[in-house]
Amino acid sequence: MKGKITSARTTAPERVRFHLNGRSVALDRRIHAARGDLADLALAGTLFSAHYARAVPLTCAASGAPLLNDTSGNAEAVSELLRGETFYALDVTTDWAWGFCGHDGYVGYVRRDALDLLETPTHRIVATTAPLFSAPSIKAPIVDHWPIGSVFAGERDGDFIACADGFVHVRHATPIDSVDTDWVTVAERYLGQPYIWGGRGHRGIDCSGLVQVALSQCGIAVPRDTDLQCEGIGSPIDSDTALRRGDLVFFPGHVGIMSDAKTLLHANAYWMAVVAEPLADVVARLADTHAQPIIARRRIGA
């Protein structure tokens, strides 16, 4: 049963003395939690705000929860929380929580009923999708499906891992401290998954989401969006250096992973799915609208 979630502002805020340090800087509102009426207390020395709040860590209790840019009916899904990931709430109302994701600092709104009290995960889902059984038996009713990359707290029970919501088969999960070493192999598990803007693998995924979750399962934390990834992942590859497996190729507003020297693995809106196709075909499709289809190539490690 879900615990009671209390608002981040139900009690009088602590009086904190601070001063702004140096000149004001332009904050990226995607990764700096500040809005007209409220800001993260961590920004108190950088940004003036009428009110500040101390972040309260919560856990995504749903199998997946979209992170939205506002609470209107036409809100855009800018990212997604997977089951067990942490969300730092700065403002909690009846229906919504505003704050930022623990894995990448991305800011947005999440439905309050998708969040629960903080949980310390012990295991991570490694199957493309893991059925959650109601009992420790493969014949038991399935109560949910958790996507790859989800994390949860549980204990071994024979061939299953028992958790608060049900039972996960040991073949579908791994201890939280166990990481993959080949992000291409991880990314290939998403082949055929639908392309969904803002998705990170619950019911679909987008291009930068694929890069982020594949690398995260190899213990490499990266930003959410393509422009942030282009600036913050690995090192540039010289134009005369041949591409190889695991390299990242960036296009205007898009990114993919090389599965070999000539094949790009990517989630894309052209095929509306995660596919592997010749890099040359992708470049040819973009040539009519972009004078320079490839804007960067980056490599992680030596």
Which structural traits does this protein have?
single chain, mainly beta, 32% strand, five-stranded antiparallel sheet, endopeptidase fold (from Nostoc punctiforme), six-stranded antiparallel sheet, 302 residues, globular, 4 helices, SH3 type barrels
Could you please describe the fold and organization of this structure?
The chain has 302 residues and is mostly beta strands. It has three domains: 1-119, no CATH class; 123-175, Roll (SH3 type barrels); 183-299, Alpha-Beta Complex (endopeptidase fold (from Nostoc punctiforme)). It is 10% helix and 32% strand. The protein has helices spanning 183-188, 207-216, 226-232, 279-286; strands at residues 39-40, 52-53, 56-60, 64-68, 77-82, 86-92, 96-101, 107-111, 115-116, 123-125, 129-133, 142-147, 151-152, 154-157, 160-163, 166-169, 173-175, 235-236, 248-251, 254-258, 263-268, 273-278, 296-299. The strands form seven sheets. A six-stranded antiparallel beta sheet has the order 18-23-19-20-21-22. It has a five-stranded antiparallel beta sheet with strand order 8-7-6-3-9, with no helix packed on it. β21 and β22 (273-278) form a beta hairpin.
